[in-house]
Amino acid sequence: MMEKFDSIKGMKVTFFGDRTQPAPSLGILRSKLGLTFVHCCPNKYSIQPEWSELLAKNNEASGGRFIQTDDIEEAAKRTNSRGRAARWTILSSN
Known about the structure:
Helices cover 33% and strands 24% of the residues. It is α/β, with parallel strands linked by helices. α1 (22-33) packs parallel to α2.
């Protein structure tokens, strides 16, 4: 992302998938960078509370945001990067 955009601060990154290891790891990294991290999955596969609490703590310090949703269309709106399990797409800043 840093190669494609002048600044990543405040960007929205969306991950589509369950709460297995990529979701919390991506959330932690993005929360430290001050990004908005959206995790989109069915409610029963949401990131577990202990991870959500850590994301909230990091976001408080960095200015980032964490959004958990099962609404695919809402999750995809105005996102700069989106991914699922092993594939990521970097989108334009528009």
